[in-house]
Amino acid sequence: SSDFNLGGRAYAKLAVMKSQSDRCFSDADCNLLFGELKLHNLIEKALQYGSKDAWTLSECGRILRYTDLEKAISLLEKSLAIKRHSTTLHHLGLCYELKAKQKAKYEAKRGQHRYGSNIKQKSLRFQSEIHESIEKRCAVQNIIYNRDDPCVLRAIDYYRQAIDMLYVNSPARFSLGLLLKKCERFEDALRQFDQIIDLNSRKDGTSSKQSGEKQEYLFTMTDSYEQAGLCLLELA
């Protein structure tokens, strides 16, 4: 059983490398490392060997988030059923946030279509095609999520579970802050960003809730300052 788990983890590691190969490796290196194996082949192999290994399931679910969202959710949930882990909870939250994002984009596009139809009906032809294109891009980039959307609520719940399990999980806290900000819950979002700044500012690298546990995610510090500032601008 342990040998199978190790085999699953090995293929999962290769799948992670393959998913990042465009950024990290040349074509020659990719051919040398992976041969004709595609990403889905590596994931299939990982699951063949590590179907009962929480780590393998979690890694495969994380990789599949942008290519097969439903399968990603299924794998992450199976991983949690075997062993709860803060990182897995975080990635499950990211999956549900992505579902909420897809829904919000669809609703935004529908709204743009209705808006465009009304313009035509009223014969308001003074808007140029370039202006309309810019408006559409801005609308997609500044999507506001419905705070009562079940996917949003599930994402928030998973982020909070991840933080409760590991108080110094700054990536999960940052994801929570961003999602709350997208729901226009600026005060709640600001609290999350301020908490990250506080955790990262401690000289001993410990949190007030879990003394002695090192803060590992310093890379969110600058982003948290930026997002906190944006929240303050909205609240001003």
UniProtKB/TrEMBL annotation:
The keyword Nucleotide-binding does not apply. InterPro entries: TPR-like_helical_dom_sf, TPR_rpt. Keywords: TPR repeat. The keyword Ribosomal protein does not apply. SUPFAM superfamilies: TPR-like (SSF48452). TPR repeats lie at residues 170-203. This is Uncharacterized protein. The lineage of its organism: Eukaryota, Metazoa, Spiralia, Lophotrochozoa, Mollusca.
